[in-house]
Every structure is written in structure tokens, then in C-alpha cells.
Amino acid sequence: MSRLILAGALLALSLPALAGSFAGTSAGASSAGSSASSGSTSGDDKVVLQAREDAASFVASNGRIRGAQLEAALRHLREHDPQAREASDMQLAQAILAR
């Protein structure tokens, strides 16, 4: 049981590196590691953070379950980050979960 928990914790720690920079902040950051754009606010982060449950359902259902909060977060990410515009819905949902 403890090995399963340890494996889950290690996976959770490695996902942010795999998720890409487009979900590093809700307004995005460049892959060079620059800070978020001036358009980032706590309200922006809230939109993305509120979509975590929907993102989990989306990933678990292999894209068949699409909640309203996930749709809002996907739209928000794509409006504020050029890298997110090129990412698939699944990649963005996984990145939301890795936050």
C-alpha cells in the first residue's frame, strides 16, 4: 500500500515537468522560463483551478466527459497563451491536473 502511495506521489511530482509551460500560470509563460504576462491575475488562476475536477473527469474518460468549467479553462488558456492554442484538449487537461 505504501509503495502505491509513493508511486502516486512520484508521478504527481513528475507531471508538471511533462505538462509544458502553457499551464505554468493561467496567462502562460515562455519555455525559457520568463514570468507570466501582466494579464495574469488571481481571477485567471481561479478559472483554471476550478476546472480541476472537470479536467480529471475528462482525462479519466479519455475525453468523453467535458464539463463547463473545463471548457471555460481551455478557452481561457488559449486566449492568453499562444502555446496553449497549439495543445490538444487532453494535453491542457493534463496540465491543469499537474498544477
Automatic annotation (TrEMBL):
Q: Where is the composition biased (Low complexity)?
A: 24-42
Coiled coil regions in record: none
Keyword Ligase attributed = no
InterPro entries documented for this protein: CHP02448 (IPR012661)
Q: For the region Disordered, what residue ranges are annotated?
A: 24-45
Signal peptide boundaries = 1-19
The protein's matches in Pfam families, at most eight in alphabetical order, are given as: DUF2388
Q: Does the keyword Signal apply?
A: yes
Could you list this entry's UniProt keywords, alphabetically sorted.
Signal
What name appears for this protein in its UniProt entry?
DUF2388 domain-containing protein
Q: Which organism is it from?
A: Pseudoxanthomonas putridarboris
